[in-house]
Amino acid sequence: MPLSLPAQLRPQQQHIARIATTYATHRPIIQRALTTGFVLYVLSTTYQSLFSRPGVRSPSRGNGRVRAEQNPDGKRPARVAVDAVFYQRLSHILRIVIPGIRSKEALLLFMHSSLLIFRTVISLYVAALDGKIVASLVRAQPVPFLLNILKWLLVAIPATWTNSWLSYVQNKLALAYRTRLTKEILGEYLGDDRHNDKVFYKLANLDDRIKNPDQMITHDIQRFSNHLAAIYSNLAKPVLDVILYNYQLSRNVGAEGLILLTVLVQSSAALLKALTPSFGAYAAMSAQLSGSLRHTHSRLVEFSEEVAFFGGEETEKMLLEREYASSIKHENMILGKRWWHGCVEEGIIKWVWGSFGLCICAIPVFFKLPGVHSFDLGTRTEGFVTNRRLLLSSSDALGRVMYSYKDLSELAGYTARVSLLLETMAEVRKGKFDKALVSSASTEDNAKILKGRGEVVESEEIHFENVPIVTPNGDVLIRSLSFYVKTGQHLLIVGPNGCGKSSLFRILGGLWPVYGGIVRKPPASQFILIPQRPYLCLGTLRDQVIYPHNKTDMEARGVTDADLIAVLSLVQMEHIVEREGGWDASREWRETLSGGDQQKIAWARLFYHKPKYAVLDEATSLVPVEMEALMMQHAGELGITLLTVSHRPSLWKYHSMILQYDGQGGYVFTKLDAERRLALQQEKETLEAKLLEVPKMKVRLQELRAASEGGLR
């Protein structure tokens, strides 16, 4: 029995020897097959990890869209992940920032790609040169050593040039993305040649999805553009490096070692990916909380006078501290997650993968590879140093691939914010709003009104037929309003606060939707609004009078500065030109001019444009009655039909029709007899004054009675 065991093993050893001989004979073909499989595996794994990662979509109100802005209301924020939704959004934005293959952005992207490839080629050359330098040291060959050092210094020239150009082109690419995207969004936000739907107004007043569009248009677009420009080099370059470095490494240590290294690395990478937090959702929430804090600061600046009068400093400070505390709490939470994730990430990528690599580099030293001849100490040292340099570069590239998923997650957060802005503007333009409604909107009658849609017909005159007046939050002020205004027939609108006077003007201006009936009106360009506090733009004194025209538009109409002086003289403001330093003087006019002067400037703007209709909302409340009379009379002489909201009896005589709300959903539309109404008003005020004296007269009467009774005693 003991003698039979070697006899049984001898055929097996011969069989293994035949397999080894066959493998050694066909090793070059097997090596190419393994290397090709490795390249395909890297590409497919990268694609699947980036494009097929499952994401969790949270249902949102309305159409099921993932919403990134929810936390201020106490709701759980929607998950932002690198999933199919992210790539769908990103592809839509990419069509905006890279409109065509011949665009400036495509050219910059091509330059960026060429520089990335060139830098990889330089890195491969440097790895081989590094091995030759060490080999010449081991062999004690000074001349080859100095020649290699000279080559090292020479290769530094294109290397440094390439790195500087890469940084420059990447920054230029980010600016190009931002410029293209900002131009597109501002076209949607403020209108362009394709459409002008007052989206900026409707977004702020008719929809609740976006609380701070200013922050999204400035900060979020900038961060998105920077991340988008960086993600290409952070992803494409490492993938290319992994393929090229490992291909060269497989030629040095064998494809078998490369496959073993891949198995070990992928196993640890799967563990790392499972431990990676959702940094995309954190980035989106950070941007939202930052925008909320900024919005709170801007409100304090806007209403500083009211806050100062009320002494609300402590309350405002509490609000700001609450917003800041929420932001800092979130940032501290992110820092904590980044800390432990960084520990795990560096431990796996730098140390674990490094140990794997050193073992692979040692294969040619400790094992004789088929088809590889024996070398001297210098050659083995050169091979080890070169392989180690390649391995470190490959490990760094693979680490950057892993890091890129974190960058991609943050890009997903900013993509969600930018996409939310684009999607919301598109829906608002189509008349689809998402607004919190008052409780009364859920009643059967009001809900029926809110579901309806009216008809808007362009006409020379104004005519409302059974039109409900509904606020954006669903409050039905008037169920059915009917009235008409003919050209030259001035309309006075009166009623208590909150009854729907200003709401009527917003429908005329095309700002609010029509929920029923028929509205016949001229286009919005035929209206000019003068509110109690007129809007004064940033710009010169001239700009305040001709807004929204510029100087070129003014000259195209044949209007000169002398004509503007004549317009200002109509409101007794011609002296302001000399006082402020000429037409080209720039100021913060809202602070420079008094309330009365601001109203006069607004009237001068009206006389410059000469529209068909003027909407006056307490537009003369801060000017003297004499000045009011001059402005009203001149507006009539210019043929401007006035729609006036005012409580001043002095304005009644300039109007022929009146629309009076009762504040309970009712109204009266009739002709206005100004003299009779004024007489009744005066009689009413006289009686009210007398009634106010009655309590005093009663008290006096009691005093007289008491005095009289005391005298009789």
From TrEMBL:
GO biological process, one term: very long-chain fatty acid catabolic process
GO function terms (MF aspect): ABC-type transporter activity; ATP binding; ATP hydrolysis activity; long-chain fatty acid transmembrane transporter activity
Pfam family, one: ABC_tran
Keyword annotations: ATP-binding, Membrane, Nucleotide-binding, Transmembrane, Transmembrane helix, Transport
InterPro entries: AAA+_ATPase, ABC1_TM_dom, ABC_transporter-like_ATP-bd, ABC_transporter-like_CS, ABC_transporter_sub-D, P-loop_NTPase
Topology within the bilayer: Multi-pass membrane protein
N-terminal signal peptide: none
Sequence ranges of Basic and acidic residues compositional bias: 66-75
Protein name, entry field: ABC transporter domain-containing protein
Cellular component GO terms held in the UniProt record: peroxisomal membrane
Segments of this protein annotated with the region Disordered: 54-75
Subcellular location: Peroxisome membrane
Similarity section: Belongs to the ABC transporter superfamily. ABCD family. Peroxisomal fatty acyl CoA transporter (TC 3.A.1.203) subfamily.
Highest taxon above the source species: Eukaryota
Ranges of residues in domain ABC transporter: 462-707
